[in-house]
Structures are given as C-alpha cells and as structure tokens.
Design brief:
The protein is of the alpha/beta class. The chain has 10 helices and 11 strands. About 45% of the residues lie in helices and about 20% in strands.
Length: about 280
C-alpha cells in the first residue's frame, strides 16, 4: 500500500465520523495506531517497503524503521530509562494519530467553536504585540499539534506569515496547503531561498513571522545537541538583529488527550540578545 493511498484511506475514514463529538474521535484513531505499532496487524505499518532489515535482509516497513530511529535517539539522549522505551514509542505513535484526527477540526478551532479545548498562557503578550504594532519572530518546534500555534497567533489579530515545509507526498501537499491557508495562517511562505526573500518583504511591511527551528537546514551553524553537532538555522537571529524585531518563543502541549495549553513567552527585545555575527539574510 502506498503512503498516498494510506493517507487517503485515513482521510476518508475521518470523513465518516467528522460529525461526531470532538472527544469521540480519539479512541477510534488512537486505538488503531497503537495496536498497529505494537503487533503490526493494522495497515498503518504498511507505509513503504523500500527499506531492508540489515540482519535478516528482508523488506522492512517504514513504521519499524521509525521505531528503530526513535529508540536510537532515546539511547543517545541518555535521559530515559530503557524499560520505558516501548511505552514512549507507542505514545509517540498515539500522538501522531491524534494530530491526524484533528485536521478536520481545524476549521472549528479557527471559528472559535472549540475554544474550550485550548488555553493560552501569555495571551496578554500577543495582545501587547498587536496593540503596540510590534514586529515579532515567533519560534517553536513541532510540539504536539503545532498547527494550532500559528492559528492562535493570527486569531489574536497579529499580521503574520508562517514558514512551512511542503510535504514529500505531492498529491496530499496541495490539500494540506489549502487547509493551512484557509484555517491556520493565510500568509504561508514556502521554505527555501525564495521564501527567505518573502520573509524579508513581510518584515519590512511590519508583519511578524512564525517558523519552526527544529528541522534540518542546509545553511546555519553547528550546535551541541546531546553531545552531537546539529545544523541549526540562524535566520531568526539574523531577522531580529537586522530588523530590530522581538523574539517570542512559543510552545504547545497536550493535556487530557484532547485539551491543549499553549505558552506564549514575553517578547524579548533584540537589545537584550547576544546574536551571531555571520550574515545569512
């Protein structure tokens, strides 16, 4: 089964239950994902038989490869008891299932019909940025349902552009771009060199920018990440330095399965930051 067909099957499945209560969707999706990740009796493990197990030489499913990668990362971090690895991995897949299940409900989040499911700690910081018409660089990572962060920032009335990386699946990417433009952030900028120019144009117009800093980048600097050098983007720092923007770290976490809490830090003025000297933008 191709990744494209698998995604379409899941979307079709959600279409049949999208009218149910918001809280009912999780037991269906989460249960299937978790069972599939543990005993491989569910189609979710049939991502792509393009990799091979080094020991057996037989085709290995993408889900198994991901399990190995997660386990390897946990071992390298050195912060987790090994006996908890399988539990953590299953919870990671469960979280993926929840995020997938929530895409049909982004419109309802946007229209404030599901406000009771999200709490914002630091809403006054967003209001201050809007009131004082300040330009800000919002930085975050792919924490939980990361889509809700840009959605809530724009809902607060801030003129925002959001940087995104297109999906590898070209068939599904068009649909995803429509979802993001309609319900998350209207001003979407594709990651890349042309996107960098668009970012600068938006900053000059007085807009703020939101971007993730936990993705692999071609340009940047190496920093120590759990004892290993990791390529890290310096674009946020360069924007702040050159255009005198505020820095605003944001974060979102899932609580009680389908409730979220989003944290918006107090804006940090560029005058209080130590920034790199290498010119990127």
């Amino acid at each position: 089964m191709s990744l494209f067909l698998l995604e379409i099957n899941y979307l079709n499945g959600m279409e049949t239950i999208r009218d149910k209560k918001f809280t009912e969707i999780y037991s269906h999706i989460l249960g299937e994902i978790e069972r599939g990740s543990v005993d491989r009796k569910h189609g979710f493990h049939l991502f792509n038989f393009s990799t091979y197990d080094e020991e057996s030489g037989y085709p290995d499913s993408r889900i198994v490869v991901l399990r190995k990668l997660i386990k390897n990362n946990l071992e390298q971090s050195g912060i987790v008891d090994k006996k908890n690895y399988n539990k953590i991995i299953s919870k990671i897949y469960g979280n993926y299932g929840r995020i997938l299940a929530e895409y049909p409900f982004l419109k309802a989040f946007r229209n404030s019909k599901l406000n009771k499911f999200i709490e914002i700690d630091g809403l006054e910081n967003l209001n201050k940025i809007k009131r004082e018409k300040r330009r800000a660089v919002f930085i975050s990572g792919h924490f939980n349902n990361f889509e809700l962060m840009a959605l809530q920032i724009e809902k607060a009335g801030i003129n925002l552009c959001a940087i995104y990386r297109p999906l590898n699946n070209v068939f599904l990417n068009k649909t995803m771009e429509e979802i993001r433009e309609n319900f998350i952030c209207k001003n979407q900028i594709k990651k890349g060199r042309s996107g960098t120019r668009q970012i600068i144009e938006n900053i000059k117009k007085g807009n703020s920018v939101a971007l993730m800093i936990d993705q692999r980048v071609r340009e940047g600097i190496k920093i120590n990440f759990f004892g290993k050098p990791a390529s890290t983007t310096t674009i946020p720092a360069q924007l702040i330095k050159k255009y005198k923007c505020d820095l605003v770290p944001i974060y979102i976490e899932r609580r009680k399965n389908n409730y979220f809490k989003m944290f918006v830090s107090e804006p940090v003025s560029y005058t209080h930051l130590t920034l790199p000297t290498k010119r990127i933008v």
